[in-house]
Amino acid sequence: HPAGDFRPGRHHLDVVAHRGASEDAPEHTLAAYRKAIEDGADALECDVRLTADGHLVCVHDRRVNRTSNGRGAVSTLELADLAALDFGSWKAPADEAEAPDRDPDRGAPDHDRTSVLTLERLLELVSDSGRRVELAIETKHPTRWAGRVEERLLVLLRRFGLADPPPDEPSPVRVMSFSARSLHRVRAAAPDLPTVYLMQFLGPRYRDGRLPPGVGIAGPGIRVVRNHPDYVARAHRAGNRVHVWTVNEPEDVELCVRLGVDAIITNRPRAVLTQLGRR
Ligand code: G3P
Ligand code: CA
Q1: What pLDDT score was predicted for residue 104?
Q2: Is 228 a residue of the active site?
Q3: Which of 98, 162, 225, 233 is the most exposed place for a label (fewest CB within 10 A)?
Q4: Are 98 and 73 in contact (CB under 8 A)?
Q5: Which CATH number belongs to the domain containing residue 201 in this structure?
Q6: CA distance 116 to 109
Q7: Rounded to an integer, what distance in angstroms lies between the CA atom of residue 87 and that of residue 45?
Q8: What domain range is 248 assigned to?
Q9: Is residue 89, in this structure, part of any structural domain at all?
Q10: What is the DSSP track for 122-182?
Q11: Predicted TM-score (pTM) of this structure
């Protein structure tokens, strides 16, 4: 109930690692996702973009400037160009003493921390993880490509047997987007794949908790939830679930639990699981 007490561990809510355990390791790297799996995250969030030669890679920004030592838009670079860049050294290890030292060769670069990550490699990591880990995949700038991002995504998901989940079982993959058109394309090709409509602001159209046709999960930013605390209950009454991003502060975790949200997307899965009494 929206007015209920905050009681860690009472309400099951999924903890989703935003760009991996991105507080501890460089976002969207294998190291960040391995850490999230080790930390016990229920799901992994990733953004996908198409390279000039048609590969889906996990990169948030349009350009690689912030998260690598290169420059330029992902869409103008080929996978081989991205593979030559360092996607990890911009971020110092959270704690030098505890930094993961996965490379047996001391001093050698840790490729898990520095290499560009393809969606294909991330799907392999999840399928080899030995436990159920869900994936929340966000299509970035999908309109630019007139359907190619979704097309490639579905080819890849089909190859891993993930595009057509049985309708009566929870799907291990969901597709998220700020673009209703992108979600529509996904549903047209894979009707049983759950979709999440991301919202930075709560427009008048969706205030009553409804979503674009066929979408079953609302993805409001934490500010939407803070500013419209009734929204979660309204979405639930409309038959939709609510996955909130990006929830890093303990008081926001508490608010989400109190309001009964269904998933928290966070840069700090370990800390959130601890707060929820699950670690
Ligand atoms: O999980 C949704 C959230 O990631 C959307 O915002 O900018 O971090 O992709 P952004
Ligand atoms: Ca995202």
Answers
A1: 54
A2: no
A3: 98
A4: no
A5: 3.20.20.190
A6: 14
A7: 18
A8: 14-61+118-275
A9: no
A10: HHHHHHTSSS--EEEEEE-SGGGGTTHHHHHHHHHHHHTT-SS--TTS--SEEEEES-HHH
A11: 0.93
In a domain, residue 210? The reply is yes
Query: What is the Å distance from ligand 1's center to 77 Cα?
Result: 23
What residues are paired with 16 via a beta bridge? 43, 265
Whose alpha carbon is nearest atom 1 of ligand 1?
Answer: 245
Neighbours of 237 (CB within 10 A): 11
CA atoms within 13 A on the CB side of 172: 14
**For position 90, what pLDDT does the model report?**
94
In-domain check, residue 26 = yes
Q: How many domains does the chain have?
A: 1
Query: What residue owns the CA closest to ligand 1's atom 3?
Result: 245
Query: Can you tell me the distance from the alpha carbon of 26 to that of 90, in angstroms, rounded to the nearest whole number?
Result: 8
* Residue carrying structure tokens 């969901």: 174
What was the pLDDT predicted at 141? Answer: 73
Q: Which atom of ligand 1 is nearest to the CA of 19?
A: 4
DSSP 8-state assignment for residue 118: B
Tell me if residue 12 is catalytic: no
* Residue 232: C-alpha distances to residues 38, 239, 245 (Å): 30, 11, 13
Query: Any idea which ligand is nearest the CA of 198?
Result: 1
The number of angstroms, rounded, from the C-alpha of 199 to the middle of its chain's C-alpha atoms is 14
Cβ atoms < 10 Å from Cβ of 73: 15
On whether the CB atoms of residues 136 and 119 are closer than 8 A, the answer is no
Structure tokens at 182: 């992108």
Task: For residue 70, tell me if it sits in a domain.
Answer: no
